[in-house]
Each structure stands twice: as C-alpha cells, then as structure tokens.
Amino acid sequence: MKVLIVGATGPTGQELVKQALTSGHTVTVLARRPDKLSVPQPTGDSLKVIPGEVLKLDDVKGALTGCDAVISALGGKAGVFTSCDVYTKSLDVILKAMKELEVKRFIACTSWGTKDDPELPYLFRWVFKPSILRNVLANMEVMEDTLLKEEEINWTVVKPPRLMDGPLTGVAPLTMEGQLVRGLPGKVHIDRSDLAKFMLDCLTTSDWDRKLVAVAAGSCAVAEAAAEAASSEGNSVDGEKK
Ligand SMILES: NC(=O)c1ccc[n+]([C@@H]2O[C@H](COP(=O)([O-])OP(=O)(O)OC[C@H]3O[C@@H](n4cnc5c(N)ncnc54)[C@H](OP(=O)(O)O)[C@@H]3O)[C@@H](O)[C@H]2O)c1
C-alpha cells in the first residue's frame, strides 16, 4: 500500500516509517523538519521524504497524491498553560485533502481517556488529565468527536496509555473499543514499536473501521493475572503477605 505518514519525525512516527517499509509499503513522509527522520534511507523508491507543513493544504495534497491512506502520529506539546490545536487543525487539512484526492483511509493516534471514565488510572485521571495533559487531551477529544461524525472517510483512532520505547515485542496488544482497556492494573503502558505495528495492521483489517480503539501492551494482562493470583493466595503483588 502507498501510505502518507505525518508526525513521522516523532518517536512513534519513526517506528511507523521503519515498520511500514519493512512490511513492504511505499511510504511518503511530509515533515517540517525532514532532517529529524533517522530511519535509514532504503535503496529504491519505497521512501519519499517531502519537506512541508501538515497545516498547509497544498503541502498535504502534494504529498498525498498517489497515496491510498494517511497515518498520523502527530503530537501536541503538553502544558498547563500551553494551548494545543495541532490535532484539530491538521485533521481539518488532512480530511480536506483526502476528500479532494479521494483517499479514503485515515489512521491516527490520540490517547486513553480523552473523555472521563471512572476506570481510568488514578494518577492519570486526577493528576495529569486535569493539569499538564488537559489541553492536549481536550484537543484530541475534539478531533475524535469530529471523526465520529465523519461520513466520507474510513478512519480509526488508536488510543494508547503511557508510551515507552522498548523493542517490538511481537505480542499482540490488548484492545478495547472506547477510552481505555478495562480491567488492567494501575501501571499500564505500550511500547511505541508495538503501537506502530498495531496502527499499520489497521491498514489491512476492517476490525477497527470508524472506531476509537484503546490499546495496551499484552504484558499488562500478565501483570494483571499475577496480581490476581497473588491476591487469591493472600499475597500482595510485590510478594508481601496481606
Ligand atoms: N508520551 C506518552 O506517554 C503518550 C501517551 C499517550 C498518547 N500519546 C500520543 O501519542 C502520539 C505519538 O507520541 P510520540 O511521543 O511518539 O510523538 P510526539 O513527540 O508527541 O509527536 C511529535 C510529532 O508531531 C510533530 N508535530 C508536532 N506539532 C506539529 C506541528 N505544529 N506541525 C507539524 N508537525 C508537528 C512533530 O514534528 P517535529 O519533529 O517537526 O517537531 C513530530 O513529528 C502523540 O499524539 C502523543 O500525544 C503520548
């Protein structure tokens, strides 16, 4: 497939580009600072890197021409007093370009808990969401709400918890439609490599078409099982007797 990747110079984006090439996709990258892309240039023409702005319609249309899908790993800066509009502004431009060029598939990344849910991890819900993540999550939420009303484009929004930088595990992530993967212990995460793989896998399945899908590392389920086993044996998770 021919894929346009935006946000490719971020850590998840770099993984997306690397794995997309390995999987045999033809990749176009639109980046305002292309020199930040550290993926080795493959031989042949499977990777095209175009300097430009994701917020400029002509730049996006130029990069998108000939592509079958768009994947976005764009990220806004978190901050209590830092406003964030990169998700909604880029979405407006990308959707317009996609419609004009009749490109139908869009896959993007936001986060767990853009909307409140009593099962969100305590620290996320009560410390980070109301403070440093507030503006970023609010803008992600507007982006998701816009997509939920979108009729022409086949979209998927992948929603990870805390991101880490481990290597590809090969273990399928846990998935659940909605704001979070329920029933996991407090410390949840996913490696960017596994997140990127899942986003790319969305290109070849219709399972998550027009859905918000929360993901978490497969290993989080192992941690949960261990916690349950320890609990039923009368031990706490770290091995101490209750
Ligand atoms: N960090 C976490 O624990 C966590 C948890 C859940 C969800 N997420 C979300 O997961 C996604 C991927 O995160 P990440 O850490 O891999 O990447 P990131 O650092 O959040 O994303 C950076 C990417 O977005 C681009 N970007 C930001 N503002 C831009 C703008 N105004 N115009 C054009 N490009 C812009 C950057 O381009 P430049 O290189 O040119 O700056 C870079 O390619 C993000 O949406 C993030 O919010 C993160």
Automatic annotation (TrEMBL):
Annotated InterPro entries: NAD(P)-bd_dom, NAD(P)-bd_dom_sf, Polyketide_Oxido-like
Protein name as it appears in the record: Flavin reductase (NADPH)-like
Coiled coil segments of this chain: none
MF term (GO), any: biliverdin reductase [NAD(P)H] activity
Stretches that traverse the bilayer: none
Annotated NAD(P)-binding domain residues: 7-204
